[in-house]
């Protein structure tokens, strides 16, 4: 049984999380796994506890577009 754990910043809305779970599940069903066998765990991490290039994500100025 596939078990996928993914880490996201806290505050992502429920609809987006649902779409992530659907998308991850689809990847495995496309490979022939039964839908019922796929498990997805979403870990939400505050930006103040996530480091990028030696900086906290909560303090980092980014030129990247925000993920919606």
Explain this structure.
With 68 residues, this protein is an alpha+beta fold. It has one domain: Macrophage Migration Inhibitory Factor (2-Layer Sandwich). 25% of the residues lie in helices and 26% in strands. The protein has one helix at 14-30, and strands at 3-9, 39-45, 51-52, 55-56. The strands form two sheets. Strands 1-2 form a two-stranded parallel sheet. Strand 3 and strand 4 form a beta hairpin. It is elongated and about 40 Å long. The model has no long low-confidence stretch (mean pLDDT 92).
List keywords for this structure.
alpha+beta; Macrophage Migration Inhibitory Factor; 25% helix; two-stranded parallel ribbon; 68 residues; 1 helix; single chain
State the total count of DSSP E strands: 4
Separation, N- and C-terminal Cα atoms: 30 Å
Helix coverage percent of residues?
Answer: 25-40%
CATH class: Alpha Beta
Q: DSSP strand (E) fraction?
A: 25-35%
CATH architecture: 2-Layer Sandwich
SSE succession: EHEEE
Report Rg: 15 Å
Uncertain residue ranges? none
Structural class: alpha+beta
**Multimeric state:** single chain
CATH homologous superfamily name? Macrophage Migration Inhibitory Factor
| Backbone shape | elongated
Largest sheet: 2 strands, parallel
**Count of DSSP-assigned helices:** 1
Side by side, the strands of the main sheet go 1-2
Stated plainly, the CATH topology is called: Macrophage Migration Inhibitory Factor
């Amino acid at each position: 049984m596939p078990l996928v754990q993914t880490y996201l910043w806290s505050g992502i809305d429920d609809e987006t999380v649902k779409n992530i779970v659907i998308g991850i599940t689809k990847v495995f069903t496309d490979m022939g796994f039964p839908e019922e066998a796929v498990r997805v765990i979403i870990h939400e991490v505050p930006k103040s506890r996530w480091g990028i290039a030696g900086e906290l994500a909560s303090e980092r100025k980014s030129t990247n577009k925000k993920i919606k």
